[in-house]
Amino acid sequence: MKPFLLLASRAEDDAAIEEYEAFLRFGHLEPEQLHRIRLEAGPLPRINLDEYSGIFVSGSPFNASDPEGSKSELQLRVESELGVLLDEVVDRDFPFLGACYGVGTLGRHQGGTVDRQFGEAIGAVDIKLTAAGRVDPLLEDVPDSFSAFVGHREAISALPANAENLAGSSDCPVQMFRIKENLYATQFHPELDVPGLLTRISVYRHAGYFPPEEAESVADSVRDADVRIPPLILRNFVRRYAR
C-alpha cells in the first residue's frame, strides 16, 4: 500500500506527537503507512502525489482569516506552500481530508468565505448530517447525529460554489463539506478523543482559546464526552483510498 501523507503544523511536540499517533490509531495505519511532514519545521519539499494514497491536513495554530499584515512569515510560507499543493490536488481530485485547518485552507482556495462569524469554544458539540451527508460514502456507518470535539476561532460562512455541505451544528452551519468527489474538510476534529483533547487544553492553555485559569474547568467539561463516532471518518477515508 502506498502511504498516506499527513501535513501538520503544530510546533509544540506534545501536541504534535499525540496528533500523529491519533491519525495512526484511528486510521488503523502503521508508521510506515503514514508519512508526516511538519510544515512549521521547514519548507515543504516537492510532493509527488503518485507516491501517496491520500493526504491529511491536521489542525493548526494558524487562522486563514487573520489579516494578511498580521500573519507571521512562517504562516505566510505555510499558506503559500499549501496553496500550490492544493492547485494540483484539486485539479486531480486527489484524495484529501483536512481537519479543522483544512476547512480554512481548502475553503479559501476554492473561493469560500472564512471568517470569525461561527467560531466555537473548545468542547463537544452535536453534529447533524445533511441529506447529502447521509449518502456520502465517507460517512458510511456514521449516524445522522453524533458528538465531536471542536475548538476554533474561524469557520466557513459562505461555501465555495462547487462545494457540497455534508454536516453542520447549531452554532456552525458548515461542519463538513466536499469538493468534487474526493476532497473533504471537517471543522470538527475526527482524530480527537478525550485524552487527546486534554493534551491540547494543557498545551494551548495560553493560546487564547479560554482564560488560562479556566483550563481545569474546561478539561473537566470534556472528560465524559462520547466522541467514538468521528474517528470512523478517518477509517473510512483510509479504507476508501488505500491503494
What does it look like?
The protein is α/β, with parallel strands linked by helices and 243 residues long. It has a single domain, classed as Class I glutamine amidotransferase (GATase) domain (Rossmann fold, 3-Layer(aba) Sandwich), CATH 3.40.50.880. It is 32% helix and 23% strand. It contains 7 helices and 11 strands. Strands 2-1-3-4-11-10-9-6-7 form a 9-stranded mixed beta sheet, sandwiched between helices. It has a two-stranded antiparallel ribbon with strand order 5-8. α1 packs antiparallel against α5 (194-203) and α5 packs antiparallel against α6 (215-222). The chain is globular and about 45 Å long. The chain starts with a strand and ends with a helix. Keywords: Glutamine amidotransferase. It comes from Arthrobacter jiangjiafuii. This is Glutamine amidotransferase. Residues 49-192 form the Glutamine amidotransferase domain.
The N- and C-terminal alpha carbons lie at a distance of: 5 Å
The CATH class is Alpha Beta
Tell me the strand order in the biggest sheet. Answer: 2-1-3-4-11-10-9-6-7
Largest sheet features = 9 strands, mixed
Whole-number tally of structural domains: 1
- Overall pLDDT: 95
Whole-angstrom Rg: 17 Å
Portion of residues in beta strands equals 15-25%
Protein name: Glutamine amidotransferase
Organism: Arthrobacter jiangjiafuii
Keywords: Glutamine amidotransferase
Domain Glutamine amidotransferase: 49-192
